[in-house]
Design goal:
about 425 residues; Rossmann fold; eight-stranded mixed β-sheet; 14 helices; binds uridine-5'-diphosphate-xylopyranose; EC 1.1.1.22; NAD binding
């Protein structure tokens, strides 16, 4: 099929490259000329495992030609289905900001005015229930002068890929959710996903657009709340001197609980969980419902960085101390600093009079935009050298093998927020939740 993908962020680019790999003819539309040139040169505009190869295979000079990028929305006219993969940031009150989606829908609608035959538009961005039906479809209708269900169809297909494993998550989904209020749109979505579904043998969930939108929020909110619950339990374990990881391993054997997302520690960050949980809370409150468990999940998550710093303060006088912070990215395998737990940890250390030397294998450059007055070290060993204390914020594998580096600390006190370093003699070691 001929597909247009609007937006070249980490979802849009991944989806475009993967669909090209599955045999579709894909054009990726973005307003950023630099990104468009990068893709057309055969390079990935973001760092994602396996993405470079896919973009080179299909957009590069030696490629199949099934992937190209452009800034021109008119490219939509030569395609059958358009996926909207634009960002949905949050307003100051946590609610969803649909303005970028609305602007994209408006450009798309203008182009659809000139499309003589049927077209299907699929919302892939994470949007609160009702957005596709109540906000996006009316804009498409107004700008195109056409009626949804007659000249074009609208669907919703949420994306569950994680940063760092986006390509493999897309190509090996545990489910494909197709939401549509229109039979023809649904049939087009089935056709687009057929090569993926048959290759990955993935179950397909067919539903309406509102339910598809809610499935995405429920998925992310459930996982975020699961981590907050294990953090709450981990904090209780800590009070009793119990190893919460031993407890988590045991309860994870119960199929009803499951072993994943039971790693307690300094909490969840990133571009999705904090934003999506805030958006569904705001949407629920707007409907007059108080989502008590989700509010508690946020409260536990907000508390964990402070608990980490309090634990360190039990051993080190923070005022005037130099503290090594190991890890800055919101999780290993990415340089993304958005909502990283490192930010509140470092700000809290600084507020209590400490100076910070931080190290991360890839996120240092991005960290400069989020943090002030931090010294960045070239290695974990360099950050630890002479430090009065250390905290681990991101579970990079390399921190598991630091061994002797702790011997060069002025005062070998380490608080591990991710259970990654090996407990050893000669350091004062505290796990945040165990
Ligand atoms: C998440 C969802 O997993 C994905 O399906 C969705 O499409 C986007 O949001 P991502 O933000 O890339 O993906 O990261 P993820 O691997 O889910 O981790 C999120 C946060 O939770 C990280 O800060 C991580 O450190 C933390 N986490 C994860 C824990 O603290 N404990 C765990 O057991 C797992």
């Amino acid at each position: 099929m001929r597909l247009s993908i609007i937006g070249s962020g980490y979802v849009g680019t991944t989806v475009a490259a993967c669909f090209a790999d599955l045999g579709h003819e894909v054009v990726n539309i973005d307003i950023d000329e630099g990104i468009v040139e990068t893709i057309n040169a055969g390079d990935a505009p973001i760092h994602e495992e396996g993405l470079d190869e896919l973009v080179a295979d299909h957009a590069g000079p030696e490629g199949t030609g099934r992937l190209r990028a452009t800034t021109d929305y008119a490219a939509v006219l030569d395609t059958d289905v358009t996926f909207l993969c634009l960002p949905t940031p949050q307003n100051d009150d946590g609610s969803i900001d649909l303005s970028i989606m609305e602007a994209g829908a408006s450009h798309l609608g203008e182009v659809l005015a000139d499309k003589p035959d049927w077209h299907t538009v699929v919302v892939k961005s994470t949007v609160v229930p009702g957005s596709t039906e109540d906000a996006i479809t009316p804009i498409l209708e107004a700008e195109s002068g056409k009626t949804a269900g007659e000249a074009f169809g609208v669907g919703m297909n949420p994306e569950f890929l994680r940063e760092g494993t986006a390509v493999s998550d897309f190509l090996n989904p545990d489910k494909v959710v197709l939401g549509a209020d229109d039979e023809r749109a649904l049939a087009d979505m089935h056709e687009v996903f057929e090569p993926l579904v048959s290759r990955a043998d993935a179950p397909v969930v067919e539903t309406d657009t509102r339910t598809a939108e809610m499935i995405k929020y429920a998925n992310n909110a459930f996982l975020a709340a699961k981590i907050s619950l294990i953090n709450d339990l981990g904090n209780i374990c800590k009070e009793f001197g119990i190893d919460s990881y031993e407890v988590a391993d045991a309860i994870g054997l119960d199929d009803r609980i499951g072993e994943q997302f039971l790693r307690s520690g300094v909490g969840w960050g990133g571009s999705c969980f904090p934003k999506d949980v805030a958006a569904i809370i705001a949407a629920a409150e707007e409907q007059g419902y108080d989502p008590a468990v989700l509010n508690a999940a946020v409260a536990v998550n907000d508390r964990q960085p402070g608990r980490l710093v309090d634990l360190l303060a039990d051993h080190v006088a923070l005022d005037g101390a130099r503290i090594a912070v190991l890890g800055l990215a919101f999780k290993p395998g990415t340089d993304d600093m958005r909502n990283s737990r490192a930010i509140p940890v470092i700000e809290s250390l600084q507020a209590r009079g400490a100076t910070v030397t931080a190290y991360d294998p890839v996120a240092t450059e991005n960290a400069r935009d989020y943090l002030d007055d931090v010294t960045y070290a070239d290695s974990a060993a360099a950050a630890l050298d002479g430090a009065d204390g250390a905290v681990v914020v991101t579970d990079w594998d390399e921190f598991a093998a630091l061994d002797d580096a702790f011997d060069n600390m002025a005062d070998p006190v380490v608080v591990d927020g991710r259970r990654i370093i090996e407990r050893r003699d000669g350091i004062t070691y505290e796990g945040l939740t165990w």
